[in-house]
């Protein structure tokens, strides 16, 4: 898997997303859709990930999604790993409830990348909490 061929791989693994992919491609009127934008729209802004994780009712689909994420995490292509980190995992990290649900399904390498995001963002969120406390007093 490479960044250049990741979209067909995703559709092969998750054909449930085909309609959303087609709609986004139609919107771009034949231009190549950057994968970061495509994944953000199809997985995040469509509500796919939130609904999937927060309803937690289709565990087989959730497992297939996280199997694909693990393939991305283990990919030699740095752009694929960046796509996972920036577009998918940082989105999950932004919502505690969704992230908590996601942790149950993450495999080792995906979890490691997610933990690295937490280590990076934690000082900012801690400082934000301190600032809010100071303002409240």
Folded structure, characterized:
- 77% of the residues lie in helices and 0% in strands.
- With 137 residues, the chain is mostly helical.
- The protein has one domain.
- It is globular and about 40 Å long.
In a nutshell, what does this entry contain?
The protein has eight helices and no strands. The chain has 137 residues and is mainly alpha-helical.
Which key phrases capture this entry?
single chain, 137 residues, mainly alpha, 8 helices
- What summary fits the major beta sheet? none
Outline type: globular
Percentage of β-strand residues? under 5%
Number of helices: 8
Rounded mean pLDDT is: 87
- Enumerate the spans where pLDDT stays under 50 for 5 or more consecutive residues: 123-127
What's the domain count? Answer: 1
Name the structural class: mainly alpha
H/E series: HHHHHHHH
Radius of gyration: 16 Å
Fraction of residues in helix: over 70%
Distance between the amino and carboxyl termini: 53 Å
Quantity of strands, as a count:
0
Blueprint (SSEs and pairs):
Layout: H1 6-13, H2 18-27, H3 35-45, H4 48-55, H5 59-73, H6 78-93, H7 96-103, H8 108-136
Helix pairs in contact: 3-6, 4-7, 5-8, 6-8
